[in-house]
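User: Run a structure prediction on this.
Assistant: Running it now.
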Amino acid sequence: MTSTIATVGKSGSGKTSVVYYLSDIIKNMFPEKSILLVDNDLTGELAEFFGLKIENTIYGIRSGKHEYNTGIPSKMTKQEYIEWALEDIIVEVDDNIDIIVSWLVASKDCRCPITKQMNDALVKLVERYDFVIFDCEYDLKYLHQLVDYPIDTTLVIANPDKKSIALSEKIFENSKKYASNGQFGVILNKVNEDNLEKVTGVLNSFDLNLLGVIPDFCENINGEEFKNSLKTIYSRLNLPQNPMGE
């Protein structure tokens, strides 16, 4: 069974950093498990974290602008073609970790046959992996327009200020109908003692579930502080936990 995680939040909140380090944590906990990273953010920064420049996207398949890495097999149905094309644009970033980039997505109101065909193909792709992590564009609506699949855990990444917390509440309200009754909580990024104390009351007033905090780690060049904080947060998520308790 596939475990799904989505990160949402405003641009610059640290969503992509969370996805990057979360994939490494899961890889170390479950080295035999497969992980798919889905870059659903229009900035397309996730691939850059791995030193990649990916130009072939799901949008390219839909729009007919994709440049295929291999020759197109003959005598395929439209559905088979889409499934094959998705395989063609997957990029391996590490052992058992792959990435695929969506870029622009179509509205669910679109009645084009390819909208359903793409959704069905993406569902099949997701179900091939043990873990799938979605780096989302603001909230879950944009992801839902790409693929309709249950999300086990949705993480709202926010900065520790009142404006960001208020925005997190708005993101929650916009996203909860797509969350499939999964876990939904906030991770505060770039936290120090002063700003944490100021926003705790704000969080409580919005009835948001605080899953954990990531200290301000700007001087920590290799990101180990960020990663260690995320390890603690992972233990609170409704996701498979390390059977060895490590």
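Residues 15-29 form the longest helix (15 residues).
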